[in-house]
Amino acid sequence: MRLPIRNDVPPSYDEAVSVHSHVSAEVCGATLRLAPVPSREALIVKVQPPRTPPVDIHHVPCDIVLVIDVSGSMGSPAPVPGEGGSEDTGLSVLDLTKHAALTIVETLNADDRLGIVTFGSKAKVIQDLVPMNDASKAKTKDNIKSLIPQDATNLWHGIRDAIQVFKDGGRSSRVPAMMVLTDGMPNHMCPPAGYIPKLRSMSELPATIHTFGFGYSLRSGLLKSLAEFGNGNYAFIPDAGMIGTVFVHAVANLQATFATNAKLALTYPSSLQIESAMDSSVLLEEPKATGPKDKRMKALQLLLGNLQYGQSRDIFLQVRRRVAKDTNGEGVLDPANLEVEATLEFDKAEIRPASQDSKTFGTADQKSCTLSVRGSITHQASDLSDAEVAYHESRARICKYLSSWFPIGPDGEHRVLAEGRAQKQKELAQLLDDLPARNHLDTLNQSLMEDLTGPEPKGQISLAIKTDEYFNKWGVHYLPSYYNAHSRQICNSFKDPGPLQYGVESPLFNACRDRLDNAFDNLPAPEPTPTVRRGWHGGSPAGGHGHSRPKISMSRYRDAHGVCFAGSTLLELASGRVVPIRKLKRGMKVRTPAGSRKVALVLRTPVQAAMLCRVGSVAVTPWHPISLDGKSWTFPADVAGSIVRYTGSVYSVMLQRDRSARAHAIRVGSVWGVTLGHGLTQGSDVRAHAFFGDYNRVGKSLVGLGVDRFGVVEGRGVERDPRSGLVVGFRAKLAARSSNQLHQSSMMRKLSLPQSSI
């Protein structure tokens, strides 16, 4: 259900508005504030957009051009890394990309426009910017569904043609965004001098550029640089399990845009040295001298890009005063009462009240707003709490550390540090010791600490650089994406605790995100695209096919590896965070229809080309009961959108003992999935099962297989009664059945199981 978003007294907006004030200023609904922190030699500039739009709206209208890689590698399987290998659901990277694109289309309306550009060895404009009315949306969906993998990767021509699509679309007051998705490295028609110099030589970009890298064969430094130059965001999509959440958040941020083209200019005496504490960006420039010679000043400009409703932008700056010489030649600080002037300029995104005709909307220019503040930064400290100061300083220091791994080359492209990685690991240890956030227990500061260190799924930053193997495979792509979320203060997925703190105060962002999330889950599940084989000379398709939807009798599913979910399935924890089900461990708290419950055991079963049902974004065994509302239950076999072949590990969960069956279900994707030992062993309820419903029998069987220190059991399917064919237990991994009776007895006690012989 969409949250009501309104304000009883809408402000009036002038074409150009300017306000000058000391300490803080407000105009067009936004507030600009200087918060000096002399004790930290710092200045925090706070930009605060309004919490909600002045009138009730569905979303802020957008102009979006999708720039989609259709090179040959996009037809390869979209893997989801498992514990001991990779999973193959029969879907390609392009299949999932098309599903994400269809999700975007689903949430647009006649106020929005959407265009499509593809790039293989050549770029092609599939669709110009057209309003998303019902007829256009139907045509757009057909265009997306028709995309097939081709040959090389000509990224530059894709970007070039998308820029032209915006120019051809004419002036607009909508929020413009180019969304570029690729799974590899550009290898055809790359600009000789580099992408960033080529873009610099062109006229002003007509839209922000947002880049998305899928998989591990990426040129992430280039994607990061393109997003920085385009005042957009770079997001890393490691696997199929993340594509939905990344695209959902990217579009939700666009649809909650308050202003575009935001620029912050600081003017201050030349006796001050002010610099960004977050370090490198391709757009970051050195301060410039300004003013008459006798009153020489410095000017520093920071490009902020888009601002979102309800989410502040907090710029943490290092400030140092010039050291002068006294009559004895000793160094002394300049005694002047030094003032800084900050000026914010932005274009206010136009919104359409429900009463306005959509046919006349979007043709005007965006309204320009300017506000300035001036204040001393050397005498009186701001009234910000110690915890807030610690949070912004810690966020800046984390970003600066991550940025040091990816210096900018002469061509404007970020490249990974070639030497000194061991030293960088030592620097992280030092950062953890010195970080101000560690001294505060509030949610914001602790979210940073959780991302830095702790057992999985926490501590992703430490894990990303732990070994060369981790760093070279995914850390090199993940860290720039994480940096981007904090530097621009945007929530970019449901995954990391730190970025999850952004947007929480924005009803519009949350409403858009929920709507997109539901659309992604409830669209018909994607079906594998036939793989096109081309001849040696790259002519017309040779007629070969790859993945296609299996045509298999549902009785084939009854060999049952049990009741399980694919390892990539996103599961909701009690805290509201989501993690892949393969990350669960004993003691973690999950959400159930009855509230928070702890995980007792996790069963992992490796499978090869197993048949699973797709229900929304969830891949599940056919006879694992699921529910949309937590009350009425059904089998996936009866409601599946498609069937997939799956290679990897499937997972089942056993929660803490509870007499209520409602306490034995987990939230996976958009459905509830029953857990083992739910207490229903007979009757007409779909969940009822003589073995799977019996907590004692399930617990004994799992403990008998051997439980590791994380509460994970590895099995290889189910045991059946040879006469009745009914499931009576779990099969052990070959030669893996535990013989440690003391360990078994201990586990039986923890699960409150009878101590009879197994």
UniProtKB/TrEMBL annotation:
Residue ranges of the region described as Disordered: 525-550
Q: This protein's superkingdom?
A: Eukaryota
Q: Which Pfam families match?
A: Vint, VWA_2, Vwaint
* Ranges where the VWFA domain occurs: 63-251
- The signal peptide stretch is none
Q: What is this protein called?
A: VWFA domain-containing protein
Species the sequence originates in? Purpureocillium takamizusanense
